[in-house]
Write a structure and sequence with these properties.
mainly beta; seven-stranded mixed beta sheet; four-stranded antiparallel beta sheet; 11 strands
Length: about 120
């Protein structure tokens, strides 16, 4: 079983930065997870993928964030971070961490953390 704990959300002004962190816990995570990533959902909107990274470090970004956000990982800590720069009001959403595992055959989700960008 995998548990994801997120931190780093908060309130920031337009143009500011936040770093979200997601720490995964569970047995044999470093050898059994295939990708980790971040999704977000704004009020009244559908959930969308923000960024993903596989255990080899290959990343994928939504077009709306790819020049502003950076996803990174630490295999030893089983942690994934999302550095968000030049934040915009449209980035306001609940951001959720996810971990996909072929070993467990399922996707795990964190509880979500609120990011609010004021205009």
């Amino acid at each position: 079983q995998v548990e994801l704990v997120e931190s780093g959300g908060g309130l920031v002004q337009t143009g500011g930065s936040l770093r979200l962190s997601c720490a995964a816990s569970g047995s044999a995570l470093s050898t059994n997870w295939n990708y980790m990533g971040w999704y977000r959902q704004a009020p009244g909107k559908s959930r969308e993928k923000v960024a993903t990274i596989n255990r080899d470090g290959i990343t994928s970004y939504a077009d709306s964030v790819k020049d502003r956000f950076t996803i990174s990982k630490d295999n030893i800590k089983n942690q994934v971070d999302l550095l968000m720069n030049r934040l915009k009001p449209e980035d306001t959403a609940v951001y959720s961490c996810t971990l996909g595992s072929n070993f467990w055959g399922q996707t795990f989700w964190g509880q979500g953390t609120q990011v609010t960008v004021s205009s």
